Amino acid sequence: MATTTTTSTVSPGPARPLDGRVPKNSLTTNRGGFWFVLPFLVVYALFTIIPVLYGLGMSFFDVSLAGRPAQFVGLDNYAELLGDSQVWRTLGHTLLFTVMSTVPLVLVALGMALLVQSGVRGQWLWRFSFFAPFLLPVATVVLIWQWLFQNDLGFINNTLAQWGLPTVGWLTDPNMALLSTVIITVWWTVGFNFLLYLSALQAIPESIYEAAAIDGAGPFRRLVSMTLPLLNRTTGLVIILQVLASLKVFDQIYILWAGGTGGPEGAAAPILQYVYDSGFVNYRLGYASAISYFFFLLIIAVSLGQLWLTNRRSANRKGQ
Amino acid sequence: MATLAPSRATSGRRPSRSSDPRGPKAPLGMRALMVTGLVVVSLLWLAPLLWALDTSLKPEAETTAVPPQWIPESGFTLDAYRSVLGSDDLITWFVNSTVVAIAVTVLTVTVSALAAYGFSRTSFRGKNFLLALTVAGIMVPPQILIVPLYKQLIVMGMVDTYWGIILPQLVAPAMVFILKKFFDGVPKELEEAARVDGAGTFRIFWQIIMPLSRSIIAAVAIFVFIGAWNNFLWPLIVTSDPNLMTLPVGLVTVQSTFGIRYAQVMASAILAGLPLIIVFMLFQRQIIKGVATTGLGGQ
Question: What percent of chain B has pLDDT over 90?
């Protein structure tokens, strides 16, 4: 596990010893180190490790909030969720949302970063307009888009009507629910990926481009054969961060369709919404925990898959 | 990131024609295309914000004009802001959000920096195991903990309290890891000199390491603050008392109480987003660098 996350965030470079760089009994062997780590360990144990274990335990029980004693049910909760069509439906929405949102969130971010890095005047304004939405609380984002997407009075439908185009039931048509969520999410969070790309672009040494320019490579050529390959690592990182973030979609969907209906006919309800509903609406805490762990398994699988890909790629690079 | 040479784009200087890093200047047609692209995309990205701001400045009766008008016939007004700020709710939530976000930021940075220093620069039994356990925590999405954590907080008597909102947000193993990586790179000669002078471990941490780490500490603090100010799911679950709600949670209930008074809804939405936007306008460079640094895992 330790190496998993390490490799996902560390860039290649001279290997630095992470541990044991301080020789024992040297002047820099600081004493009392445990006391430095202790406060973190206390909150970590109380608010992550214990809940992780408690939740796992709970998933084997029939627990409710209503005070009646919990009953051990073994794997019943897991057996039930495998046959629960709502689990698969919400999981489907979650996966679909992840695919639909990751593609634009990577491509639009890359396009924005390339445009801004090209050096057109007004850097402050470009960066402000692309990144500002990321700073807004989700409630603000959703309130603004509910108003824009409003069926009869909303800015978007009114503009479409003015141009003689058919209006769209952005928040009322079950077929549009996920797409509307994607539009909102791209607008809201693309600025983060944009910044990651921008800082990667700025880290590319300018001398590389000068050399290429001397060799007569045009701007398009430089983009395709130099910039994009040099961004490969960043793209890998952005994709994995984005997939993990998109899988956890909940907030905007919960607020968009007030009361947590998950969209018209529940057409956008993600799996975390089903966890929330099972736990806090239907008070079936054991079952909600089981779904959480089922979902956690998926997250771990994605993380391990990413680790495997990264390792294979760096192994290939070493082999060359 | 910390070692990144200041590039043209961040240095705020105007790009001079002769030193364009992309080699000879792109052809005029292509430059025009890029400028057009930038203008169109940033207009698309700013339009929702501008429309929200515009709506919030209209008299309520004119918000629903068809077709939409950018400039209301009877002129702009601050009525919506007056009514929103006239109710105590928004002020209460604003105070709650501020208290929670500041407490979360200060405590998270303190706890994480101490732990990172312990992991980076000291030795004690079980260190490697605890470090591995911490790094493993990066993989645990807080969302899967909501159910057991809620049950646990009932037992601890922390539901509907500030501490109930704040404490679970202090766990930031990724920030510990980022800070540890930074501390690993600080030359240890400085510490040796201080130790010869008789400084204790905590004094070395506080007087030598922390001042050297200002930039990364600021980056982590910014990242944590944005997350805490905007956190929704956990405060939603742990508070039911409107007097303890944070802005994002409270706002979601505002809409239903305001009905279809769009100017007021937009005014409250904008007020909730304004603090971070203002901070961003003032400290754009630092925030961009901070977010990129922490987002990339402390590179």
Answer: 43
Q: Closest by alpha carbon to A157, among A140, A145, A142?
A: A145
Q: How far is B284 from chain A (nearest CA, A)?
A: 8
Among chain A residues, the shortest Cα distance to B171 is held by A44
Q: Give the Cβ contact number of residue A14 at 10 Å.
A: 4
A93 closest CA partner among A239, A285, A257, A238: A257
Q: How many whole angstroms separate alpha carbon B119 and alpha carbon B114?
A: 9
Q: Which of A44-58, A185-199, A303-317, B74-88 has the lowest mean pLDDT?
A: A303-317
Could you tell me if A128 lies within 8 Å of chain B, comparing CB atoms? yes
Pick the residue from chain B with its C-alpha nearest to A9: B297
Distance between B40 CA and the closest CA of chain A, angstroms: 11
Distance from CA of A84 to the nearest CA of B (A): 19
* pLDDT of A17 over the 80 cut: no
pTM of the model as a whole: 0.85
Q: Which of B58, B144, B258 is the best residue to mutate to test the A interface, defined by the most A CB atoms within 10 Å of its own CB?
A: B144
Mean pLDDT, range A171-183, rounded to an integer: 95
Phi, psi of B285 (to 5 degrees): -60, -45
**Top-confidence residue, A277 or A211:** A277
Average pLDDT over residues A85-95: 96
Q: Which of A228, A257, A128, A242 is nearest to A185 (CA)?
A: A242
Among A130, A132, A99, residue whose Cα is nearest residue A113: A130
- Residue A87's nearest CA partner among A315, A297, A320 is A297
B285–chain A Cβ distance below 8 A for any pair: no
CB contact under 8 A, A41 and B115: yes
